[in-house]
Amino acid sequence: MYFLVMATSLLLLFQTSTNAESGDLRRLGAEIIVINADFENLLNSELSAKHKKGLKERIKGGLAILPLLIRKSWNGSQPITSYSSKFMKKIQTALDAGEYKLVTTTLRKLLNKFPFNTSGILPPDYRPLALKRSKSIHESFCAGCHDEPDLSVSRPAWNLFKLSKRTTLDKLAARMIVGIRGDSLTGLDNPLRDYEISALIAFYSKAPISTE
User: Fold this and answer.
1) What's the alpha-carbon Rg for the chain, to the nearest Å?
2) Interatomic CA distance for residues 87 and 95, integer angstroms
3) In sequence order, what DSSP letters do the residues of 115-169 get, joined into one string?
4) What's the CA gap between 146 and 141, in Å, rounded?
5) Stretch 113-121: mean pLDDT, rounded?
6) Residue 201 contacts residue 164 (beta carbons within 8 Å)
7) How many Å apart are CA 84 and CA 177, to the nearest integer?
8) What distance in Å separates the CA atoms of residue 203 and residue 127, rounded to the nearest whole number?
């Protein structure tokens, strides 16, 4: 009986550790996706100077935490990947200098090295009950900031229905992994479960333009 309890405890510990590693890797991949998407928006959009400045700030902030996310996601089974703060600072400097080709090349390397795992999130959950629940989540926690963005600030909380129409599902999923934060009770982690994020993506992408 003792050995059975010990074996069960070790299995639960292993599963918890594995889930944590999986979550850390997902957050890392999502952060890189968002950084790259923000950079693409910076190059291709007709945003105001204020909003472009906000995008640059978001990109730099994301780059600053990447070394920590890489270290946190390391599982110890192989040598840790060397992407230091100095390396990320180089990208930030290239961004400020307008050396966009260098930024593009480097971000592509990061995307290839740390792919974003969307299992359990994509494809979106379009089932009627999931859509009904996601509508409730949106109205309770998201609508207040996102339905009518404050465009006077440099980094608005963009309308999620409109965003879903001009981006890919993996980029939308990445933004929801990175952008949704909890509170002190959840350690400021994303409080939503994978199936809730999946349903929210379905809700935003399914809604007709006329309801935005």
Assistant:
1) 19
2) 13
3) ----TTTSS----HHHHHHHHHHIIIIIHHHHTS--TTSSS----HHHHHHHS-H
4) 10
5) 95
6) yes
7) 23
8) 10
Give the whole-angstrom CA distance, residue 110 versus residue 209: 34
pLDDT 10s digits, 125-166 = 999 999 999 999 999 999 999 999 999 999 999 999 999 999
Handedness of CA 63, 69, 70, 71 (dihedral sign): positive
Site of tokens 């909380």? 157
Query: Locate tokens 């978001």: which residue?
Result: 58
Spatial distance between the Cα atoms of 156 and 154, rounded to a whole number of angstroms: 6
Tokens 């509508």 sit on residue: 135
Q: Are 174 and 108 in contact (CB under 8 A)?
A: no
Mean local confidence (pLDDT), 21-37: 91
Torsion over CA: 139, 135, 154, 162 (sign): negative
Structure tokens at 211: 């309801």
Q: What is the C-alpha to C-alpha distance for residues 24 and 4, in angstroms, rounded to an integer?
A: 30
pLDDT tens-digit profile of 68-88? Answer: 998 888 877 666 666 788 889
